[in-house]
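DM from R.C. (forwarded with permission)

"hey, sorry to bug you on a friday — could you get me a structure for this? deadline for the figure draft is monday and I only need the backbone to look sensible"
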Amino acid sequence: MARLNLAHLTLTAAQNIQTADEVRRDPAVVKAAKQFAEDSAQALRSGGELVREARASWRRHSPLTKGTATGE
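My reply, with the result:
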């Protein structure tokens, strides 16, 4: 069975951590992350509005709320 080279493994891990940190701080990545957060928040607001409008429409079109279910 092959043995692990711990020095190589440690160096590789350290390099990957450094690379991940550089990517996280990259201005283009930061800008895209902010835009994603803003777009996500807007999508949640729009989704909530869609649900509210669908419920209101259901109430407007439902025979039970129009009084037609009792033959009126």
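R.C.: lifesaver. The chain has one domain: 4-59.
me: no worries. The CA atoms of residues 2 and 9 lie 14 Å apart.
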